[in-house]
Design a protein that fits this description.
- This protein is α/β, with parallel strands linked by helices and about 280 residues long.
- It contains twelve helices and nine strands.
- It is about 45% helix and about 20% strand.
- Strands 1, 2, 3, 4, 5, 6, 7, 8 and 9 form a nine-stranded mixed beta sheet that branches.
- Strand 2 (about 40-45), helix 2 (about 50-60) and strand 3 form a beta-alpha-beta unit.
- It is globular, with a radius of gyration of 21 Å.
- The termini are far apart.
């Protein structure tokens, strides 16, 4: 049952591995939701940190929250296990170091309730920690998803979508298990809908799994795995996929050029050159 006594319509699933104090903020953000028909399903993915274990112990005694434990196998299997224990018709993944705005569920659940053709609802994302700004998430189409992961992991979707795709693929250990799920869903005809408002917050830190996955050799290996799994989609939309990737690369290059030519950066470059000159004799 949810906290107000009704059967939970939404299951918020939280995989945890040594999240420490950040876990408390994630769980507090779910407790603060204005939409009340939800439960929280936490999977401890083999945590060893004392603070994390203490928080999990407290969470396990909180109404509307269940905690399940497993060995350290990665977020994909942890999320699958959480969904197996979940009772909600709708699923919302929430990483233990991220958090939600209080109205996330209030503004996303009605979309799935009123639009049967929509399988996933996503929002804009606030970037916190070691990155800043707003991620204005993209579209949920096969061509767009072939080029990049256009939406955040904390997106509300129908349980049937997860079942149709076959769940999160545990082969994607370092990252991309959510991208793989979204691409598989779009390839099966599921539609997405955006709520253009910052309602989820995505944290990046020095220890973030995603940050480590951006190492060139790791990201290249993950991309090869994604292409191999979805080869038919890439073959059918090769031009769109390559064009999207090239557009993103070009955009990053233009952004770096704008940063380099900004007056403050040019001044810094000149100062560095002056300070680096040998003193006149």
């Amino acid at each position: 049952m949810s906290r107000d006594g009704h059967a939970p319509r939404v299951s918020v699933i939280v995989p945890v591995f040594n999240a420490g104090r950040l876990l408390a903020r994630a769980l507090d953000s779910v407790a603060a939701q204005t939409y009340r028909q939800h439960e929280v399903v936490v999977v401890d993915d083999g945590s060893t940190d004392a603070r994390t274990l203490a928080l999990l112990e407290t969470a396990g005694h909180t109404p509307g929250v269940s905690v399940h434990r497993t060995g350290n196998r990665g977020p994909a299997l942890a999320r699958n296990l959480a969904i197996e224990h979940a009772r909600g018709t709708y699923i919302l993944p929430l990483d233990a170091d991220d958090y939600l705005a209080p109205t996330f569920l209030e503004k996303t659940v009605p979309v799935l309730d009123t639009e049967p053709a929509v399988g996933v609802v996503y929002t804009w994302v606030g970037l916190v920690g070691e990155h800043h700004g707003v991620w204005r998430t993209g579209g949920f189409t096969v061509p767009e998803l072939l080029a990049r992961c256009t939406i955040h992991v904390s997106s509300l979707y129908r349980r049937q979508l997860w079942q149709d795709v076959g769940g999160y693929d545990p082969r994607f250990v370092e990252s991309c298990e959510d991208w793989d799920l979204w691409l598989g869903a779009a390839g099966r005809g599921w539609q997405g809908r955006s709520v253009p408002e910052v309602l989820a917050y995505y944290r990046r830190s020095a220890s973030s799994r995603e940050r480590r996955a951006r190492a060139p050799e790791t990201s290249a290996r993950l991309m090869r795995s994604l292409v191999a799994k979805h080869r038919a989609l890439y073959d059918a939309h090769l031009e769109d996929a390559l064009a999207g990737m090239y557009a993103r690369l070009s955009g990053a290059g233009l952004m770096l050029e704008r940063i380099y030519h900004h007056p403050a950066m040019r001044l810094l470059v000149r100062l560095r050159a002056l300070l680096g000159r040998p003193a006149a004799r």
